[in-house]
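PROTEIN DESIGN WORKSHEET
SECTION A - STRUCTURE
LENGTH: 523
TOKENS:
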């Protein structure tokens, strides 16, 4: 109750306060509220997770959605004030005596499904343990559960076979009635269907079921399987220098900040219908960074955490439907299935290509604003683009399509150290004094997460793992394999900085953005 009262008091205070003249005071007030709301969100998440009582879960979930929406509102005000997605929180954290915390790693859409199922399972086991009396009869409880599960599967199978029988019976009656009709009636029916299909060969998506569209999209690789990747798997440490950067600077985002931005603009709105409808609407998101920094992994993490479908509009896929009518048909199918089976993510890999070359690609670029205008606040559909060479695209239409632009940097020293240790142990390696992780973290400066993963998999083959008992791992093995890769040089990294990537003239064109909402200026 105290958390809810503090949230309501903050809303009343922020709405009744007059506009402050000093931007630093306004930023301090917003940053303080942002840090406090993050702590409130953490506490509500911890309270919501173990709850099984439906009324209590609904009450806490209502407060949880409200806090998430408020965090998104405050974040939007901070971005509009500083014209940056990254903010210096060191002074606020020291004043409040807090440590840097991020958003809960789980999407709101997956909480109801997994937590409720797990809670009910534990309740069933507790009831069986209490009825059996002694811990020694736990195996008997498991056997009773197995018998009950087999009985449930038998009833479900019987109901399924009954539905099949009734469907076959209905089809046979329909065929008998069709055969009883005269040839003239059958010809008239065929002519009607042929006329409708010929007069409206393309929108005839309207006559198809969601299942048939879903199957076609999957067969054409326009609907792809989501990899089971969590946002917490995108490893990264808070750089120590971030605590010293001054307010007003334009720093590059750290990996924890990238995780937080992805959770703010991707996972939270997609995972909660209430947050998506009431928070500032974000229809499109761009992840820009060198090859191998984990942009595709973040896309799959959004879908995993939010429980979303993943549609691929990568330029190589759109070539299967040439011409304007083909692209319109693809976009209509994705829009119809994505809205029906929301939440959904529409991913465009190498999105700079549709703004640089190719006739079919340029058609797609012209149709994307119309696609975004068709998305309403109730539609939990997010357009996510990834690019490794954003400077090859025409910046005008490029920035009008993507409302939020997140720069994904290469890993720093602390992150590289954690990556080497994690993946070596994950692949079966053993850490000894002959393997210097500090040396690997220093030598791999400029290399990406993808380089580290590739090197570890190249070195730790099945044969090398068998030899590890008599031949421990050495630092030189990984350094030799790392030397075969090209690092991300400073010149390339500077090209990704948003200030040099997107010219100043965009500030004048922002008001004429075709998305229905004003496009917020990126970092």
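SECTION B - SEQUENCE
RESIDUE ASSIGNMENT:
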């Amino acid at each position: 109750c105290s958390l809810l009262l503090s949230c309501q008091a903050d809303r009343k205070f922020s709405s009744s306060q007059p506009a402050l003249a000093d931007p630093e005071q306004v930023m301090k007030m917003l940053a303080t509220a942002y840090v406090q709301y993050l702590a409130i969100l953490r506490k509500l998440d911890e309270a919501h997770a173990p709850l099984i009582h439906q009324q209590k879960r609904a009450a806490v979930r209502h407060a949880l959605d409200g806090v998430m929406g408020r965090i998104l509102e405050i974040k939007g005000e901070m971005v509009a004030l500083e014209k940056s997605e990254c903010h210096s929180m060191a002074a606020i954290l020291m004043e409040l005596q807090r440590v840097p915390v991020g958003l809960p790693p789980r999407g709101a859409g997956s909480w109801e499904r997994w937590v409720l199922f797990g809670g009910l399972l534990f309740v069933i086991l507790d009831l069986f343990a209490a009825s059996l009396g002694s811990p020694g009869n736990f195996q008997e409880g498991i056997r009773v559960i197995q018998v009950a599960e087999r009985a449930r599967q038998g009833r479900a199978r019987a109901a399924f076979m009954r539905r099949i029988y009734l469907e076959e019976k209905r089809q046979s009656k329909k065929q008998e009635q069709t055969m009883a009709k005269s040839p003239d009636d059958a010809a008239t029916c065929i002519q009607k269907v042929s006329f409708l299909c010929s007069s409206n060969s393309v929108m005839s998506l309207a006559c198809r079921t969601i299942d048939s569209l879903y199957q076609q999209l999957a067969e054409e690789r326009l609907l792809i399987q989501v990899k089971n990747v969590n946002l917490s798997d995108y490893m990264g440490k808070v750089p120590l220098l971030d605590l010293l950067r001054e307010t007003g600077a334009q720093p590059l985002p750290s990996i924890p900040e990238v995780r937080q931005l992805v959770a703010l603009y991707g996972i939270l709105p997609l995972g909660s219908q209430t947050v998506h409808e009431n928070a500032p609407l974000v229809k499109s998101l761009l992840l820009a960074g060198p090859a191998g920094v984990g942009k595709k992994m973040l896309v799959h993490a959004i879908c995993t955490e939010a429980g979303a479908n993943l549609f691929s509009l990568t330029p190589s896929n759109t070539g299967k439907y040439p011409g304007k009518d083909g692209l319109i048909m693809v976009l209509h199918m994705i829009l119809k299935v994505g809205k029906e089976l929301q939440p959904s993510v529409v991913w465009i890999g190498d999105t700079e290509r549709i703004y640089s070359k190719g006739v079919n690609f340029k058609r797609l670029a012209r149709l994307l604003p119309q696609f975004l205008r068709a998305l309403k606040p109730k539609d939990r559909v997010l357009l996510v683009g990834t690019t490794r060479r954003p400077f090859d695209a025409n910046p005008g239409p490029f920035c009008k399509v993507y409302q939020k632009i997140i720069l994904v940097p290469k890993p720093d020293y602390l992150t590289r150290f954690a990556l080497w240790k994690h993946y070596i142990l994950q692949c079966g390696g053993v850490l000894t004094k002959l393997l210097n992780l500090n040396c690997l973290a220093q030598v791999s400066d400029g290399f990406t997460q993808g380089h580290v993963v590739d090197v570890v998999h190249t070195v730790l083959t099945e044969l090398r793992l068998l030899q590890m008992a008599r031949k421990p791992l050495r630092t030189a093995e990984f350094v030799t394999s790392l030397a075969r890769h090209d690092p991300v040089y400073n010149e390339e990294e500077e090209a990704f900085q948003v200030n040099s990537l997107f010219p100043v003239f965009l500030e004048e064109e922002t008001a004429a953005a075709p998305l229905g909402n004003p496009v917020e200026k990126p970092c």
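SECTION C - NOTES
The longest strand covers residues 381-387.
The two ends are 37 Å apart (CA to CA).
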